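Appendix C reproduces, verbatim, an entry submitted by the partner laboratory led by Prof. M.T., so that reviewers can inspect both the input and the predicted structure.
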Amino acid sequence: MLPLGFVRSLLPKQGGLEAVIEMRNNDHEVFICTSPLSKSKYCVQEKYEWVEEHLGSEWKKRIIVTKDKTLIFSDYLIDDRPVIKGVRNPLWEHILYDSPYNQDMTSKRRLTWDNWKEILGL
């Protein structure tokens, strides 16, 4: 089990908060789609608290918590998980958030908070 406060103590990725705020300020519909961690009974509550602390309370209305992200209707899903599995074929394009542990996945576009505008065509 993960300890109380684990999720809430995670630091934002450099440039990430600024990127999602800029997307919203430019009239893009941005939601935070997140999966609960099975190893933490506090995970969902802490994710809401983290979002409120780092982005503000209005962003709590933009959180979608689901174990199956294929059920989400969207143009893009930016996620560090190399393979997203679920009950449907997703309608979104999976854009891989570049991380050290997903370097072997080469078939998807890769995004960092330095290149997000180029990758999303903005």
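The mean pLDDT is 97. Additional entries are available on request from the coordinating office.
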